[in-house]
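Kindly inspect this today.
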Amino acid sequence: MGDFYQNGIITTLHNLSRRPLEDMEQELCQFAKRRPMALILPCLYSELETDAMPNIIAHLQKVPYLSEIIIGLDRATEEQYRHALEFFSALPQPTKVLWNDGPRLRAIDEILKGEKLSPMDPGKGRNVWFCMGYNLAAGTAEAVAMHDCDIVTYDRELLARLIYPVANPNFNYEFCKGFYARTANGKMNGRVSRLLVTPLLYSLKKVFGDLDYLEYLDSYRYPLAGEFSFRRDVMTDLRIPSDWGLEIGVLSEMYRNYSLNRICQVDIADVYDHKHQDLSKDNDQGGLSKMSIDITKAIFRKLATNGIVLNPETFRTVKATYYRAALDFIEIYRNDAEINGLRLDVHQEEQAVELFASNIMKAGNMYLENPMDAPFIPSWNRVISAFPTVLQQLSQAVAQDMEEFGPEK
């Protein structure tokens, strides 16, 4: 059950009344006349073969207010791209599928890489970045939502609540972050957010004081949520991280570019569950281990740009402070789980904290070894400045791919 409490320094929009979805969708249809809306779906081809994606498509078929759906498809062969076009043809909205591994988009990518204007490695950040570029090329949608494609508890009310704050012309929000309780199947989830980000921000505030940036990040109830919405002009100056620091990086960019009264978060689901990553305690190049390193590096980089001096002694202090705080949080989560009849394995929680503490030092050492590392993909403003016709080329490439490989008419 939501509450009306406003914590932190950004606006929180709650779910107080269980408003009927039909009422909200009727309003969104009215908003769409003044502010057309689009949805970005970054996905892997393998997600088409899960139970989550067909359910998402079934719900999106009933959404009446979207003017376009843009799907970024990663790790797909030609045969799989053909199948994806057929799969997504069930959507009644105008739908564009970007074949990110196809020769046409790869050719554009190689030109941009020649000027260091495109990420070197594939991943969600690159996928989202190209989808945003296509949205800018289309030039139709004024309000855009994005969510993941592995949500097994998906309901179209999630999308309605997510896009409403930036679609409503009576609101002045440029960016909205979704939040929810990470509980499903009788278990408390969300380990990286609960056991890394929350105690890490607590420890950083203890070491460096109540910096505005740390207070800002700590105001988000679920900072690692992959669901957010934004106005069209946000995409032009946004520098998207190409690694697991995507969500934290986007929040940092909004902090850099916009006044806090143009940013909000909204309760979008009572229950949320998606594909879970392995802890990968023996492999810091995968799973939650790599995720924790990338996220921590993203926070360290932002602190450095705010004038905070970082050195080995700093990281050792942060690690020690984090470790004690995280163990205290485990006790809090255990009590919260018990009163709600949820399962929480304290041993597994402490294993995660031990790994994250070690990775804080790894992230710090990586930062010190390469402080000029720039994982951010350049903004589309910069890319367009270097290649004025790039958006037109991107739009044409997508249209040609869909025409050549789409289902027979």
Summary: The mean pLDDT is 93. Strands lie at 11-13, 37-44, 66-74, 95-99, 143-146, 175-180, 183-184, 187-188, 228-231, 263-269. DSSP finds 15 helices and ten strands in the chain.
